[in-house]
Amino acid sequence: MRKHLATTLTVLLVVGIGYVGVSYLFFPAATAPQFGMADWPEGDAAAFLATKGARDLASGLVPLALLLTGQRRALGWVLTIWTLVPLSDAALILSTGGSTVTALAVHGLTALALVVTGVLLLTEKAAPATRTAAPTAAPQGASSSR
User: Fold this and answer.
1) Prediction pTM value
2) Which of helix, strand or coil describes residue 28?
3) Which of 37, 38, 45, 131 has a Cα-to-Cα distance from 88 of 20 to 30 A?
4) 42-45, long-range: CB within 8 Å, 24+ apart, which pairs?
């Protein structure tokens, strides 16, 4: 049950941040206001939004790679450490006069989901090692084919 919950939460986080990344890459003007900042760069400075999109897309692909390769402990550490990203985002929004609701509801809840998922992954019990049976000896008198 715990392993399934951690996997489901990881997939939701991966899909969520991947969607945000793609949104910033293809629809930056429509996506930016949802971040919560009071002001966004305009003109040539708006290229920053593509950088954010690339960062968010990569942030989704790294845990996906760890999940697909079975590196659950490393995945737990990555998600726990990445809690700093939404916490930093929330702090930046709050310190620049942005939306308190968005800072807490979007970025705060994302941080909470990351740390909960990371802790679930880090505290999973390791699967018991499976033992392989020793090969059985061929019966006496059996000939081997050459």
Assistant:
1) 0.79
2) helix
3) 45
4) none
Confidence tier at 109 by pLDDT (50, 70, 90): very high
Helix ranges restricted to H, the chain: 2-26, 28-31, 48-68, 72-81, 84-95, 100-102, 109-122
DSSP state, residue 82? T
* Cβ(44)–Cβ(32) below 8 Å: no
* pLDDT of 82 over the 60 cut: yes
Cβ proximity of 118 and 76 under 8 Å: yes
Query: Which residue in this structure is represented by tokens 């040539």?
Result: 44
Rounded Cα distance, 12 and 6, in Å: 10
**Torsion sign, CA atoms 139, 141, 145, 146:** positive
Q: Which residue carries 């006496």 as its tokens?
A: 140
- CA dist list (Å): 95 to 17, 48, 49, 89: 23, 19, 20, 10
CA distances to 1, 48, 131, 137 from 56, in Å: 29, 12, 41, 56
Report CA 95 to chain centroid distance, whole Å.
26
